[in-house]
Write a structure and sequence with these properties.
The complex is a heterodimer. Chain A is an all-beta fold. Chain A contains no helices and eleven strands. In chain A, the strands form two sheets. In chain A, strands 2, 4, 5, 6, 9, 10 and 11 form a seven-stranded mixed beta sheet that branches. The N and C termini of chain A lie far apart (37 Å). Chain B contains no helices and eleven strands. The relative contact order of chain B is 0.35. Chain B is mostly beta strands. Chain B is globular. The chains are: A mainly beta, B mainly beta.
Amino acid sequence: GAGVSQTPSNKVTEKGKYVELRCDPISGHTALYWYRQSLGQGPEFLIYFQGTGAADDSGLPNDRFFAVRPEGSVSTLKIQRTERGDSAVYLCASSLGLASGELFFGEGSRLTVL
Amino acid sequence: RKEVEQDPGPFNVPEGATVAFNCTYSNSASQSFFWYRQDCRKEPKLLMSVYSSGNEDGRFTAQLNRASQYISLLIRDSKLSDSATYLCVVTPRGGSQGNLIFGKGTKLSVKP
């Protein structure tokens, strides 16, 4: 079956622009996570959803970042007024539940803000 | 102090060598522990969970020492295909179960 799918795989934008990154999780996975990873660093938690609701958004760095999962499947991470420091690989993951610790990651969306 | 700390390496070892990675975590109430593997420019994948009693999966052995807040990964008989970055991951007790905390990773390069 299909794994976690993320689009776009690469996005180059200019400072100040708005960006949307999409994640399509593995079918049947109720939990969905967003992480971001900068060069030489481990993935950094942003937000996770259990179903449609954001169960923990404590990792979102500021109010320019927002994520939705309106039907409990596909999720969109939205970044307003992008800054150069937002450049990173944005990783989406899904899992059957929260307890197992096994997250299935997508290949990521590489965002470059010029 | 960072929540999860790892020696970044790189560890350069010959094929067949035994190599050990260490990881320390700061939150004594941490609940669950894992090792993930990440190949260059690829996504992380679960390698193995880490249990208090220690656990083994083929050439890989993971150990947890809760008193010292220390996790280890031992790889025996290294293969070229083991070359990757190994990420130590912790889930804090009391925090949300979805907030997995990743270390920076330890890079392993296995040479012929």
